[in-house]
Amino acid sequence: MTLLPHWFPAACLLLVLGASIVRGLVLRVGGIHTYGFGHNRPIQSVAEHFWSITVALLATAALAAWLMPQIEVHLGRPAWSDAPALRGVAAGLMTVSTAFIIAAQAAMGTSWRVGVPAEGPGALVTGGLFAISRNPVFVGMFGLAVGMFLWSPTMLTAALLPLAASMMAVQVRIEEDALAARHGDDYAAYKARTPRWLWPIG
């Protein structure tokens, strides 16, 4: 049996959600509306639905692993998935992904948004984690989903992976169009030197 606590995935998710909520409230007090899903163009509603379902499934999986591990067995979790080595890899990936998301959000400062608001994106951010990936928050989110699958491979956590990938595929292209429209040549130069993810494909 692993020595890692069953609540570990839930703690990672709560850290991410808590940091996002606090950041959104602070920016809102400063007069910046951070939530922009559905306000830029209709296709964003598709990304919003994917995003909502992904977060809901991730939260459900994390809570099930913590409070109802017997349900995981009914969802197909194999006995070997509780191996300490695999849980250690999963915990390491979730820890790095959580830190990646929070650090990327902090690096965005007042440009942090959820979706693209009607008035367009904020200032272009190219430093910190954004120097190695144009979408480090999404990279971290997908890392969380993969980590959750490794922690507890079930039908539920398996469904997270294509959902997260679909949401990312739609939303990043919406954001790229908005950034290109606002920042022109500066964004084109940034796009040319920095990969969309952490790898040169996609």
Order of helices and strands: HEHHHEHH
Described by its quaternary structure, the protein is single chain
Number of strands: 2
Task: Look at the structure and give the mean pLDDT.
Answer: 89
* Biggest beta-sheet profile: 2 strands, parallel
Category from helices, strands and their pairing: mainly alpha
Radius of gyration: 18 Å
Notes on the protein architecture:
The chain is mainly alpha-helical and 202 residues long. It has a single domain, classed as I/LWEQ domain. 66% of the residues lie in helices and 2% in strands. It is built from six helices and two strands. It has a two-stranded parallel ribbon. Helix 5 runs antiparallel to helix 6. The longest helix is centred in the C-terminal third of the chain and has 39 residues. The chain is elongated and about 55 Å long. It starts with 7 loop residues before the first helix and ends in a 9-residue tail after the last helix.
Summarize the structure.
The chain has helices spanning 8-29, 43-67, 69-74, 84-108, 136-151, 155-193; strands spanning 35-36, 114-115.
Q: What attributes does this structure have?
A:
about 200 residues, mainly alpha, I/LWEQ domain, elongated
